[in-house]
Amino acid sequence: MRMASRLGSMLVVFSLLGGAAAVRAEQQVLPAIANLTAEQLFAVAFRPIIDNALKPPSMPDLLGDGLRRVAASDRTLGIVSVPGHLLLTREGVELSRVALPTDMIPERWANVTADMLRAIVAASPVIAQRGREQMWRDMFDGMMGDLDPYSRYAEPNRAQGERTQREGYDGIGVGIRTIDGYFEISDMVVDGPAATAGLRVGDRIFEVAGVRTHGLPYDRLSALIQGPEGSWVEMKVGPSEQRVRALTVRRRHLVPNTVQASLTDGVATIRIERFNNATQDNVRQAIQRYLDKGPVRGVILDLRGNPGGVMVQAVGVVNLFVPQGRIITTRGRNPSSIQWFEAQKPTTAFPDLPLVVMIDGQTASSGEIVAAALQDAGRALLVGSSTYGKGSVQHVTQLPNGGELFITWSRIYAPSGYSFDGQGVQPSLCTALPGITVPSLLAEAARGDRGEQALLARYRLAAPDDTEAMAALRAACPAKPADSVASAAATVSLARALLEDGALYRQALASRHINVAER
């Protein structure tokens, strides 16, 4: 790829969803957080807002709306905007005011924010009692709504979970539940450190690093198991205390596998739940395993319900099937947001496998990148409903308190030039309309194009500025979640039927492809 510019059970922190890295990161950050000031936090936060937001932000509006969200917890308080100032009032009486900067220097806006937050805390025991993290969260939530629908703040715990999903964690790769004070292994990463060392689902953990674990607080157990990548942890485990075995497990970096694969009658179904740092490799390995065992008639790529994730991994998945040409372009206000990604032949593993992609109204962001790029390349048939329509990229900034700020900084453009932001990606064959049947859709696939594709292309390019074109696109195939479509099963049946009839697949693909000049 080429890029321009630049219940009875409980999963604990070191489980499949967390990892030792989560706890270790908290231990590294907490001492600094204790002394963290609002000035320091918001100076870091305001920089990407000022530099990267799609449109230049109105800082007075941003600040005012954030402070109003904070003050809303005490109904006696109000935030009033007057020229050049913000006022804190109680029942209409001014308590404090701050002068607003006349420039866009983040530190100055951070100082004003901190001054007003201190005034609010001093004026309201109710807000003071809520704590500063909740106050900061309210501040960010109030501000983010002024930017766009997708910019957001993730508080520290949520941010850690999202980082784990994206980037992975250092750990042993186990899920753990508690039973009668014992910690029992409920799940394991396939080929992870725990599985390799000989731990089994159902084993109880009796001892870690020489410490008995029965009745141990979770935090203490977590501290014993956590550790950096490459380090070792000694454990005693077994189905019962009478059958205990000693093991030594080496911790390593693990990325959750969000890819599920199955093979039925020579057709591989690859479901991608979301895109993280391992998705491209996991898709490639899953398909290659089936090819190594025998012929594969085709691949169904299931992106239904996929909310997105790491953009470069979506580009990588496209590149597995497309050997050359543009995959996506991104453009925003910041010059660094202007990027383009192109397929590179050495990365392509499956250039000739017949491919059908299933999409629905919950397919978004990186899922839409894959669908749009494969469709524009003439490489895949899309079946299902139109997608969500989140054609934007978020710039992620890790904040000093451990939270993260997601700022929309660019829009995504398909190879044919349209932005699917708002309009989504339209399928080649729509299963979201009333009265559809698999035979009727197969008959539609068999007939040649009657000008629909050229009309679709015009609508796509016009939609961002043409409400009629946007309405026509959405009406042609409504965006619906798979479980709301009366004929949801038809999507799977249609995908399989297209791959089982090679001639029909080729005819449908050829008649629904528009040459992309940019490629």
From TrEMBL:
TM annotation in the entry: none
Protein name as it appears in the record: PDZ domain-containing protein
UniProt-listed SUPFAM superfamilies: ClpP/crotonase, PDZ domain-like
UniProt-listed InterPro entries: ClpP/crotonase-like_dom_sf, PDZ, PDZ_6, PDZ_sf, Peptidase_S41A, Tail-specific_protease
One GO MF term attached to the UniProt entry: endopeptidase activity
Keywords: Hydrolase, Protease, Serine protease, Signal
PANTHER family documented for this protein: CARBOXY-TERMINAL PROCESSING PROTEASE CTPA, TAIL-SPECIFIC PROTEASE
Gene3D superfamilies for this protein: 2-enoyl-CoA Hydratase, Chain A, domain 1, 2.30.42.10, 3.30.750.44
Entry-linked CDD domains: Peptidase_S41_CPP
Entry GO CC: outer membrane-bounded periplasmic space
